[in-house]
Specification:
alpha/beta; two-stranded antiparallel ribbon; globular; TIM Barrel; single chain; 16% strand
Length: 274
């Protein structure tokens, strides 16, 4: 496989303010050198809701610093995990929130184009779940509005949802654009009890970003190989789709990050590459 292998931002550093997944404000730069030394190709940058305007993705001065670090280390930012939209959904019933979030997405797309980003992951889970028809309708309207922009910039909006395969496909088919794609999270699907063969048969050809994680059924994250995710079956099935996107480590983490990451990176690398 010639896919890039990367890590969700913050997984190689101590937790930021004790949060499980967050942009490590004030020391985010340190992760690029660590990733380089581990042989990682890329870091999936996070856009949080908290202090969003100080994030390099929305701050021109910090963006230039990010570009410099990418140039120095060779560790790319090819994908963005836009957790911002979990806290402030594009499809919020509150029109002010929805409008503000659309403006943030437009700004994010400008930075993404500068960085050469291929995918922005839009999470529709937890508080941003598409759990009723009205939410789906609002979401489709907002995404349809932005499709000309993503088409022009050549950037995918990679949707992460908690929908079953049939419902997810129905959602995808509401968009007349190949730039609306799928972020597949192995662990989240295992936790939800979905059949990965059914999932991949349904929309495997539309997956452009993969999060590597393990979880127990109806439970939280665990060290890779200790949960309900069937990695061997997944990677065998994935070969049918000529997947060209990145593998992004979003695996279990402890307070420090680095040693538990190394353990899991070694484990999954053997499984993928033999």
């Amino acid at each position: 496989m010639d896919n890039k292998f990367g890590v969700i931002q913050g997984r190689l550093l101590p937790k930021y303010e004790g949060r499980y997944q967050a942009h490590p404000k004030g020391y985010w730069e340190d992760e690029f050198e660590i990733a380089k030394n581990l042989g990682m190709d890329c870091i999936e940058f996070i856009l949080d809701y908290n202090d969003a305007n100080q994030n390099p993705l929305l701050n021109n001065g910090e963006l230039k610093k990010l570009q410099s670090i990418i140039s120095k280390t060779g560790v790319l930012v090819k994908t963005i995990c836009a957790d911002y939209f979990m806290e402030s959904p594009l499809h919020s019933e509150d029109q002010e929130i929805a409008t503000n979030s659309m403006n943030v997405l437009k700004r994010l797309l400008v930075s993404a184009e500068i960085l050469g980003v291929s995918d922005i992951v839009i999470p529709c889970v937890d508080q941003s779940s598409l759990d009723n028809n009205d939410a789906v309708k609002r979401f489709v309207e907002k995404i349809n509005d932005i499709i000309p922009d993503i088409e022009d910039k050549g950037i995918n909006l990679s949707l992460e949802t908690d929908l079953d395969p049939k419902s997810f496909l129905e959602l995808l088919n509401k968009f007349n654009s190949k730039r609306i794609t799928v972020n597949y999270d192995i662990g989240n699907s295992a936790s939800l009890g979905f059949d990965l063969i059914e999932e991949l048969d349904t929309y495997g050809n539309r997956i452009t970003d993969i999060h590597i994680k393990d979880r127990v059924l109806n439970g939280g994250p665990v060290v890779l190989g200790e949960g309900n995710a069937d990695f061997k079956l997944f990677f065998t099935k994935l070969k049918e789709f000529n997947y060209k996107g990145p593998f992004i480590m979003q695996a279990y983490r402890d307070d420090e990050g680095i040693e538990v990451f190394k353990q899991q990176y070694k484990w999954i690398s053997k499984l993928i590459y033999g």
